[in-house]
Amino acid sequence: MRKFFILFTASIVCFACGSKPSEGETVVDERPATLVYRHMYIDGLFYNLYDNYTAEVTFENPNGSEFNYSWFETEVEIPLTVTYNDFTYDITRIGDYAFRGCDAIKTVNIPDCIESIGIEAFAYCDNLSYVSFPNSIKSVDHSPFVGSNNLICPIYNDYVFAYMPASSVGTYIIPDGIEFIGGGAFSGCEQLTAIVIPNSVTYIGNAAFYFCKNLRSLNLPNSVYNTGDKICWGCTSLMTPIYNDHVFAFLPYSWEGEYAIQYGIEQIASSAFWGCTNLTYVAIPNTITRIGDRAFVDCKNLYAVNIPVSVSVIEDYAFLGCENLTSVTFPHTEIQLGEDIFSGCYNVQISYEDY
């Protein structure tokens, strides 16, 4: 339910009509921001402008498909604010694909008003060699710097780890204090053999360690309570399961036979067992509350699953492509089921038991 409150003694201001609060008025607005102007060209950059007077840098969009600022030279300077129709908007985000493929760019100066960076915002910028990364940034979406191979130093601030150069080798210790590992942060670091995660990290984004083919050691501290999708996808050299007291994150692709998830673990992460084609049975303890989306995709030899009474959510496509799954037992309790959780399970039989 959306809530909208305006607290002041003068007349009510209508935000939908574009009226900005005057000085001295106190406004509490819990609505999600609504996009009101799209791809507006202002002072050399394109912006999306929102009704809460914030803005995000976006891409050139003459025909709906172009991502490239083709006229740029070497340096990008993101301003603090932008003005349009006599209203000033605070720039808080660099949006999805904003500078993707801008080969001319060499440096990007991000001011300390930016709070987040979108999907592939600076991806495949072949000549990009420097990006400032202020502490105002608290989150990044998937792979903001992927393919920008001229970036030779890690990119992070006191809170967010965003990028590791693909050329990195050996062991890397993530600095203590980091709380957020961005999606795709270590993507394609094929020569890394070990990554040490400090116990300050609470979240690991989608495909964070994507195709780190030679990664043999990765810890998951108990500070991590949630992970994104496919965090260890393509990590074929990981030979031990990755989990902590709260989250089961990854089972090695080469695992054969049965596996028992440790008692006390509360959730099976998205894609945790994806591609374990020789896995035959998983014992799920009565502490698991969530089975993430695509958790068991293509576990082609998985034949039976018993869902414990503790489970309250099974997310989309959880058992997609488990073609030999024939027996699934549910408890007589209410469970929120995602979309097509047994898609491709051609002979599955569902039963119910009291535990």
What does this structure look like?
With 355 residues, this protein is mainly beta. The protein has three domains: 32-151, Leucine-rich repeat, LRR (right-handed beta-alpha superhelix) (Alpha-Beta Horseshoe); 152-238, Alpha-Beta Horseshoe (Leucine-rich repeat, LRR (right-handed beta-alpha superhelix)); 240-355, Ribonuclease Inhibitor (Leucine-rich repeat, LRR (right-handed beta-alpha superhelix)), CATH 3.80.10.10. Helices cover 0% and strands 32% of the residues. It has no helices and 31 strands. Strands 3, 4, 5, 7, 8, 10 and 12 form a seven-stranded mixed sheet that branches. It is globular, with a radius of gyration of 24 Å. Mean pLDDT is 90; it is low at 1-29.
What attributes does this structure have?
355 residues; Leucine-rich repeat, LRR (right-handed beta-alpha superhelix); 3 domains; seven-stranded mixed β-sheet; globular
How is the biggest beta sheet arranged? 7 strands, mixed
Radius of gyration: 24 Å
Strand content: 25-35%
Number of helices: 0
CATH architecture of the largest domain: Alpha-Beta Horseshoe
Spatial separation of the terminal alpha carbons: 36 Å
The average pLDDT score comes to: 90
Which descriptor suits the 3D outline?
globular
Give the count of structural domains.
3
Give the strand tally: 31
The CATH topology label of the largest domain is Leucine-rich repeat, LRR (right-handed beta-alpha superhelix)
Structural classification:
mainly beta
Task: Say which CATH homologous superfamily of the largest domain is assigned.
Answer: Ribonuclease Inhibitor
CATH class of the largest domain: Alpha Beta
> Which residues form runs of ≥5 with pLDDT under 50?
1-29
Proportion in helices = under 10%
Assembly of the depicted chains: single chain
